[in-house]
Predict the 3D structure of the following.
Amino acid sequence: MPSIPPGAYSMPGMQGMLGQGMAPGMMPGMGQVTGVTGLPVVNNKKQRELYVGNLPTGQVNEEMLKVLFSQMIEACEGFDPGPGPPVLNAQIRGGVGGQATFAFVEFRDEQISATVSTFNGMELAGRHLKISHPNGYVEPVTPVETLGVPGALASKFGLDSYGAMRRRDTPQEMFNDRKARELYVGNLTMGMVTSQMLVDLFSKPLANLEGLEGEGPPVVEAKVDHGGKFSFVLFRNNQLATIALSLFNKMEFYGRPLLCDRPQGYTAEMSQEIPQSLLQSLPALNGGAPPPPPAAVAAAAPSEPTGPVPTRLLGLENLFTEAILNDPQEFKECVDDIRGECEQFGPVVMLVIPTKDDLQGFSMVDAGKCFVRYEQVTSAIKAYDALNGRSFDGNTVRATFLPTE
């Protein structure tokens, strides 16, 4: 930094800066002191930095985070590579033995930082990242215009998923639009069914239906859970989702009957009317069989669904590391994540996670376990399918149905 010339403190404007709390040699925008106007002097780094939490433990490092966010920003509409790389630095902190729990990522400018903050809830290795401005961030008087995020990028990282939309405080009408067009498809044969297979399955009988609203393919997307047990299928409109629910629920697919249902929060008011002439002409697929699968796949598929007897009460184990149990703030954030995850599958009557302090005088075996009771057994089944065997903070979650009496 160039030295300040003699007499600089008497230069026009310099006294005004000092009068607002700026020290000699401090550039405008630095520091966190408050001036005579009562407005804070902005720390520029805080404006360009983001907190990134809920990282998949042991699966990312600082260089990977820099590359990930750089590639995402470079794919956004309006990005200018001229001023330099979009990500300046990434620092991973927390965890046991160097394993990641959260990070701070510094970006080139406020526009890039503001854009990445809209990625809050993005999916990475089966987890929804928590992305937010750090303590000390000052909301600008004029909102920063963000870069355009392509639809393909949003879909790739799950920015349009329920988890991501919930974290971004998405307006309820956007949730309702998706709920009206989406179906839960469960009881899949694990390891046999892919997202593209479901797109093809639902698309073929729906592609040539006439008299429905909108244009384009009948199925927008299908996302199979990483464990291969269930999927969410998004249709072009509510009419197609309604028809698909009628046609495909209980239909045998690779040796198992599909379980099709509306997502949590769906109401009758979301339904669109279907022309009677179309209803009368629909094929009777319900309970029928699709084209036979390859012999090898058919032989490997179980003939009947197997598993534990479902109840409304679900127990979840291996959710927390010892470090998280001993960190009240991190524990609280994880509990909020778990509650939000469980509520995706249906209304929750009770969710209890006892801590060591709660169990004083009793066995510590239940410390950190999660007990969640649903209103409906079907909700508990969906949660079991989604969570059993899932990785959470580096641990493999074990779900069990518990007696309710």
Summary: The first strand starts at residue 49 and ends at 53.
